[in-house]
Design brief:
The complex is a heterodimer of chains A (158) and B (172).
Chain A (H helix, E strand, L loop, with lengths): L2 H22 L5 H11 L16 H15 L4 H12 L14 H36 L5 H15 L1
Chain B lengths: L1 H24 L18 E3 L5 E3 L8 E6 L6 H16 L5 E6 L4 H10 L6 E3 L4 H5 L7 E5 L5 E6 L4 H11 L1
Parallel strand pairs in B: 3-4, 4-5
Antiparallel strand pairs in B: 1-2, 3-6, 6-7
Helix pairs in contact in B: 2-5
The chains are: A mainly alpha (158), B alpha/beta (172).
Chain lengths: 158, 172
């Protein structure tokens, strides 16, 4: 078997496996897609509820509009852009990853890093202190006490 | 060192508390509408009295679009007489006032119209499409659409005669 034939067979095998895997991947149903998009939008008449979770009439109407737009062939990005054009970015539960919004995305990770740094510093300082106290404890005895200890040990051993 | 230790907790907590206070105190209805200065979203309506209109038909006229509901008390009750007065005062000068009744029952809406003797056209937004297209958060909200078809101003809450007159005059 020549190297080019082997390469062709390998490619066919990979394509076959990939094709089968993609074919087996569960397809998102239109109703799931409506719910996924609705979950990204803030319900305008609720307190901290998404359009997907709210039972309000307005959220219901918004879900219906999303369903209709998907049926008309609009992409999720187009639908998101439509709601932003009407309500502003406020309608998105997660801010877009751009400009000043990066602060909202990165600040928690920054806070975690600072927290880990502080914990590390405290732990290291504590370890250094305990090392220092151990070293203190191992300092040589006063010669007077050392002599006395030795004498008493001898006496005791007799 | 001791002072630094005392300060670190407030330094860490105060900005978080300020951020939370800002977030919780912000009223979504005060978020500026991205539609100001933009062409008004087109719509067509069937009125309760059987008439119809579309924004396209009204091009070249200043249009006041008021979103209301019969259950919206007291704000919608307060502004209804002011809207009727503005309609009476400015209809001869080509100003159009339209009421869009949202999330309501037809009988209640008709009773509201009757109670305040509203003579400007009012109709329901049954599927909420106009409401969503105008980015409405609640009632009442009023959009002032200029002769050029662009949204000139959005008012959140009950309108009074002074604001109505001032904004209509700006569009004439």
């Amino acid at each position: 078997m020549g190297p080019s034939l082997r390469r062709a067979l390998l490619t066919a095998l990979i394509m076959g496996v990939l094709g089968a895997w993609l074919g087996a991947a569960p397809a998102v149903s239109p109703e799931d897609q409506v719910h996924l998009l609705a979950a990204e939008l803030r319900c305008p008449v609720c307190q901290n509820l998404s359009v997907g979770d709210s039972p309000s009439e307005m959220a219901n109407q918004m879900r219906e509009l999303i369903r209709e737009k998907l049926q008309q062939g609009e992409s999720p990005d187009q639908i998101r852009a439509y709601f932003v054009s009407r309500y502003g970015e406020w309608i998105l539960l997660a801010p877009k990853r751009q400009g000043f919004n990066w602060v909202a995305w990165l600040l928690p990770f920054g806070a975690i890093l600072v927290g880990v740094g502080v914990i590390g510093w405290v732990v290291r300082r504590g370890a250094a202190r305990s090392r220092a106290s151990r070293t203190e404890a191992l300092q040589p005895l006063d010669p007077q006490y050392a002599r006395r200890l030795e004498a008493e040990l001898k006496e005791w051993g007799r | 060192m001791a002072t630094w230790k005392k300060l670190i907790v407030p330094i860490a907590i105060i900005p978080v508390l300020l951020l939370l206070a800002y977030g919780f105190k912000t009223n979504p209805r005060e978020v500026p509408s991205p539609l100001i200065g933009q062409p008004a979203p087109p719509f067509a309506m069937h009125f309760f009295d059987g008439g119809t209109t579309s924004l396209g038909e009204l091009h070249g006229k200043p249009v006041v679009v008021n979103f209301w509901a019969s259950w919206c008390f007291p704000a919608c009750f307060e502004e209804a007489p002011a809207l009727e007065a503005a309609w009476q005062a400015y209809r001869e000068r080509g100003v159009m006032v339209i009421g869009v009744d949202i999330q309501d029952r037809e009988a209640d809406a008709k009773a509201f119209i009757e109670r305040f003797k509203l003579s400007f056209p009012n109709g329901p937004d049954l599927q909420g499409k106009i409401t969503i297209d105008y980015g409405v958060y609640g009632v009442p909200e009023t959009f002032f659409i200029g002769k050029d078809g662009k949204i000139h101003y959005k008012h959140v809450g009950a309108l009074d005669r002074k604001v109505l007159r001032a904004k209509i005059e700006e569009m004439l």
